Amino acid sequence: MSKISAMTAHHPPRSALLTALLICLSPVPLSCNDNTAWEREQLEKLQWLRTADAEVAFKKDLKASRIRFYQYYGYASLTPVVGFDPCYSQVEVTPIEGTGDVIASDKHLFLIERARRFATQYNLLMKDHIDRSGLRSCPPKRG
Question: Could you give the CA distance from residue 128 to residue 23 in angstroms, rounded to a whole number?
């Protein structure tokens, strides 16, 4: 066995150590530690979804005269039910912070899925209310 082979058998190359260090110090968790500060931050932002009820939130917002849709993040921002429909472009959009396309853990994935379901259910109720109340404002058709 050559000197180089013997050295690398017991000591990984510096580039491998540097790569592992960079992965562990990355602002977006890639591995190394399932309980990173970034993951905890995302989970804290999403905790309200553990007990959130779309129908209760919808009724509370109506009582407060608040008209809005919820959106969550994936590869891009997604507003379920209405998407980019110009008839609803005047409606406030509230992003659900802590969602995104980087998933830190099974817990995080669970809460992202809860966010998706909550936004879909809430937005269905709000769209129906907007449509029935005549609050929809479609731009004039061209042509």
Answer: 46
